[in-house]
């Protein structure tokens, strides 16, 4: 019984020792690959900068699309329907219509502007006040401004509400000026597709750049790799430092990309603030969130690992020791 327990303990320790040794070996090779990058600073810095700048462009375009969608949602929630009443509508009929529209479940607020108020505002704002004094009849109709609630403030729902309001007897015409917003949404969708296409092309270029960098590193160590194979080293053991080099390129390149995006967002935020002040708007440019920065970092690491993997699988297998 005691002998069996001792064998079992020895077996468990053996597994633990092998796992610990494997982890330590991976850490040593990862740190060693970082040292190799440090010993070739020019090549490493250039590769990291190319990787970072390549990822900065799609990340910045994503930031633009993200803020455009935020602006669109703000304008959508502020949509307003203008109803022009018939000139023959009496004041009492207009007030009754206002009360009836206010009871609509889709409506949040109703503002009534009488024909007299509309003419008075037009005299002040148009600059033709004296000329308008010669008019014998008010040409402007009474107007009702209808603000939908949040549920019906979106484009499609607001259009449906407009059609419903135009069925009222005293309404001559309704207006919902959202055509420009529809165009903006279409442009945002187009830009989003362009961002995806550019991101795919740049990611492919990053993979090729990393692969070429790792290929040159393999060729520079061709003799050392041949000697390692001669003494019995496996391909997987030889490949690990180069794979870790690709990971380090991704880590550093992702950090550079995040830093560049943050700098660009801060620069554009100042320019945008001057523009929004002219329109008395409180819009603030939103930068990358923590989740988006993490995704950018993981993408850079994945691209670096993919590029290095493709390169080592192709070139290390081709290196074989030769007998002198």
TrEMBL record:
Function: Part of the ABC transporter FtsEX involved in cellular division.
Gene Ontology BP terms: cell division
Subcellular location: Cell inner membrane
Species in which this protein is naturally found: Colwellia chukchiensis
Pfam families, per database record: FtsX, FtsX_ECD
GO cellular component: cell division site; plasma membrane
NCBIfam families from the UniProt entry: FtsX_Gneg
Domain of life: Bacteria
Family of the protein in this entry: Belongs to the ABC-4 integral membrane protein family. FtsX subfamily.
Mode of membrane association: Multi-pass membrane protein
Subunit structure: Forms a membrane-associated complex with FtsE.
Stretches assigned to the FtsX extracellular domain: 80-161
Name of this protein: Cell division protein FtsX
TM region(s), chain numbering: 194-220, 241-265, 285-307
UniProt keyword list: Cell cycle, Cell division, Cell inner membrane, Cell membrane, Membrane, Transmembrane, Transmembrane helix
Residue ranges of domain ABC3 transporter permease C-terminal in the record: 197-314
Chief localisation class: membrane
